[in-house]
Amino acid sequence: MNSLHDTLHRVTQRVIENSRDSRARYLELIKREAENQPDRGQVSCSNLAHAYAGAEEDQKALMAHRGPNIGIVSAYNDMLSAHQPYGRYPERLKIYAREVGATAQVAGATPAMCDGVTQGETGMELSLFSRDVIALSTGIALSHAMYDGALMLGICDKIVPGLLIGALRYGHVPTIFVPSGPMPSGISNKQKQATRQLYAEGKATRAELLASELGSYHSPGTCTFYGTANSNQMMMEMMGLHIPGAAFIQPGTKLRQALDREAVHRVAAIGIDGNDYRPIGHCVDEKAIINAAVGLLATGGSTNHAIHIPAMARAAGVQFDWNDLSELSSAVPLLAHVYPNGAGDVNHFHDAGGMGYVIGELLDAGLAHRDVLTVCESDLGLYAQEPGLDEDALAWREVGPSGDDTMLRPASDPFRPDGGMKLVEGNLGRACFKTSAVSEERYTIEAPCRVFDRQEDVSAAFKAGELDQDIVVVVRFQGPRANGMPELHSLTPPLAVLQDRGYKVALVTDGRMSGASGKVPAAIHCTPEALGGGPLSKLQTGDVVKLCAKTGTLSTSADLDSRTAMPDPVSDDGFGRELFAMFRTHADGAEQGGSSMLAQAGL
What we know:
With 603 residues, the chain is of the alpha/beta class. The protein folds into two domains: 6-36 and 67-184 and 219-398, no CATH class; 421-569, IlvD/EDD C-terminal domain-like (Glucose Oxidase, domain 1, 3-Layer(bba) Sandwich). It has helices spanning 6-18, 20-36, 45-52, 59-64, 89-98, 115-118, 127-142, 159-168, 189-200, 206-216, 228-238, 254-269, 280-283, 286-299, 305-315, 322-329, 346-351, 354-364, 455-463, 480-483, 492-500, 581-586, 596-600, and strands spanning 69-74, 103-109, 149-153, 175-177, 385-390, 393-398, 421-426, 429-434, 444-452, 471-475, 505-509, 522-527, 544-548, 553-556. Pfam families: ILV_EDD_C (PF24877), ILVD_EDD_N (PF00920). One of its GO terms (cellular component) is cytosol.
């Protein structure tokens, strides 16, 4: 077994020490909950009748209390292509449960919004807080105390973090995450990006743009670019919460069905009454959180997880912040080039060796914790293999060398020596800079800024030719408390056009950008946010702003201390935003996870 890299060991020990009290409280909570959960056979007959009335052919088995009962929490809807395959999952999962003498019931459903649909639209202001709603919905689903194990059906952006946060508050329950896999590859990502930029310049029609987008997002399954959804799947592998290798197997295949079957059989085997009890609250510990962050850095994953990882960690009593993420990034090499960092998508990534290859390289380099409690009988070592079918039986095999060194490289010869996630800070606050998608000559941008309070105004200024210069575009009042921290991905095409015209361009914002943030230098998730008097609220158009990934700088030469903050804008109502006023009011900062629920729970 290879020794741990010094940086990994140091950061892990710091996280363990910082989490000592909160983790101890969490473990005591789930121990108490396990002891207090009633045996179903002792619950009131009236209660049980309500729980069993709709169980149809499983009713007799439930009444006899013959085996474990598995709760299914589903984020199904058929508006999300990634979640459309889940429509028929419950009936299949129930059949798989019966094969091992277990039963399964749909415990509850959660909302599942698509950031791709709401991108640049009003609905995006509900997106981040949908994670809290999903966690709350998961908590309600599991509150019935009828389940010996749980299966989480979810893939996309806020959905997996929300499911995990909710599941962790029932940490005594063994839980496995069940993905459904990516759609087949469509048109090339390079072609899609070119059409987007042509449209931004007015050189492509809306019909041409729509045809291009449909050529990429064309069937059931997860979108194939390496954004937040696919980064979620990567993290579930790194944390040992999937059946090994399940992340990127396409829907409707025999291998996909075999992996789904194994998830059901496995969760039935790791229940509290068995000999291999593996509660999710023990699986997700400090080392598992570190593994998730390492995987994010090694694969160039979504910057949204700079917000989600701290939030998920808090739910398990673990304290993890951007200092930890940035220090890990200094030591974790970039092993993958998946679009938007490279040309190929997640299908190409999987075909080249995928997560099995990445995990194997990280373990061999001492850059991941092998000794985590996974949902399988093995430690993380099994996740360094790839699944396949031996006739009809599920089996794992060695991955071997990379099948495409333009997509995957060994830790000894990476695409770059660091993980491409840099903490930048200064008198404008703290923010994240994803360097892995940005050319090194653009790591430092120093230019006059143009300040905007709405992303729509940036597009208008671009179309009017007002941004044709070296410029730092500042978009403020986009934080959790201001308007729910919408993702500003729609700004990428016009800023990329300016950059292609030869200007030095950067973005600074207290809003979000995802793994699809692209090639423009950006300081994102800036905290403290502008609302309430954060530094960005004192910035004025024309102030010189410096953003430097090399020195970790985010600053202005302007004397902010001598200025009065801009008045906080009034939050817009309509489109359901008023229903989330409480979430905005009580949200904490981006570095803590941007959650009102966790803040109010004192976690």
